[in-house]
Design brief:
Blueprint: H1 2-16, H2 23-27, H3 31-41, H4 64-68, E1 79-82, H5 88-97, E2 104-108, E3 118-120, H6 123-132, E4 137-141, E5 147-155, E6 162-171, E7 174-176, H7 183-189, H8 191-194, H9 197-203, E8 217-219, E9 231-234, H10 241-251, E10 259-266, H11 271-274, E11 278-284, H12 300-323, H13 331-342
């Protein structure tokens, strides 16, 4: 009975706080506005012209490796690309030749919303990952930078305007012991952690039923993704002219990019305005979200206002690119790619 009440509480909290709404449900009210923008643009696939240098504008299916190749090397972590079915020994040898050692981050070259992204601590974990994931992938050095952000940036194709529109800070999933409760009990008590209950019970099976010492903090997740329990926070106070200038510099030689979100780590808050200590892990295209709207303190109506603003911005960029000669992907071609990708 107690277990049923706990599950009922999770369902109630999920449906009455928009931060926990399923992704599709949260964006459902955006559909009428998308149709309006499509009519104005005379194309249901206008968004594919937003980033001409990315496959489908960065909607889905783009290669992370190809995009990272466009970013100045000074802002990238050590990164290594591998085709599917490579041997464990070849992976370790190539990584070590580039200065990448355990632990490191592994991720599919093509993937969405943090799927398949893991921290690999030793060769046994690497072998298990390669056995269960038969796709091309990237390995990046594990960055110990203390801060992680999502920075949304745009620039108009005609050069009339550019800037950072959103800065999202990330608070990783963790629990703190009270000297009485086990790790399993602490996870149950935490609304955010409880959504990850099944996954965490496997990940921490060796200490799942062990009492956590008073004041001991356990980091449950090192991957900064919303679907993995990370809390997204609005850091608009960090958004200055200097920050926009840094991203103007970073993007000046990224051909065909005009709109998207940088997922990066930084050594300090000042790194965003100086560029010193910034490492970009990924650059996402037209499907990017201004992730600050997931801040638990954020008003849901303001969240929709900000999402609509970014949709309008993407539409304006796409129209300019179209006038400058960029092609829009035909609707039925996009539909076919969508079916193939999610099959």
């Amino acid at each position: 009975m107690k277990n049923l009440l706990w599950k009922f509480k999770l369902v109630v909290n999920k449906w009455f706080h928009y931060e926990y709404w399923p992704w599709v449900l949260f964006y459902l009210p955006c559909l009428p506005y998308y149709l309006y923008l499509s009519i104005k643009a005379r194309s249901f696939t206008y968004f594919t012209a937003v980033n001409p240098g990315f496959y489908l504008g960065g909607l889905f299916g783009e290669s992370k490796h190809d995009i990272l190749e466009l970013i100045p090397k000074a802002f990238l972590p050590l990164t290594c690309y591998f085709e599917a079915s490579v041997s464990t020994n070849n992976v370790v040898t190539k990584c070590q030749s580039l200065g990448i050692y355990f632990p490191f981050i592994i991720k599919p070259d093509v993937g969405e919303r943090g799927n398949g992204v893991e921290k690999i601590n030793d060769i046994q974990e690497l072998e298990a990952y390669l056995e269960s994931n038969q796709v091309s992938f990237l390995i990046q050095e594990y960055l110990t930078h203390s801060l992680e952000f999502g920075v949304f940036y745009y620039k108009m194709p005609d050069g009339s305007n550019s800037g950072v529109t959103s800065i999202t800070g990330k608070e990783f999933l963790k629990v703190t012991g009270d000297g009485i409760a086990t790790l399993e009990q602490l996870v149950r008590r935490s609304l955010r952690a409880s959504y990850q209950y099944n996954r965490l019970s496997i990940k921490f099976k060796n200490r799942w039923n062990v009492v956590v010492a008073l004041g001991e903090e356990i980091l449950l997740e090192t991957i900064g993704n919303h679907s993995r329990g990370t809390m997204f926070l609005d850091f608009k106070q960090l958004n200055t002219i200097e920050v926009s200038k840094i991203f103007d510099v970073i993007t000046q030689d990224i051909n065909g990019f005009y709109y998207g979100r940088f997922d990066l780590k930084a050594t300090s808050y000042e790194s965003l305005s100086t560029g010193i200590g910034l490492k970009i892990m990924e650059l996402n295209g037209v499907s990017s979200e201004p992730a600050h709207v997931y801040d638990p303190r954020y008003n849901v109506f303001k969240a929709y206002k900000d999402v609509f603003y970014h949709m309008k911005l993407a539409n304006l960029i796409a129209k300019q690119n179209y006038k400058l000669g960029s092609e829009r992907v035909p609707f039925f071609y996009l539909l076919k790619q969508l079916i193939e990708y999610f099959k």
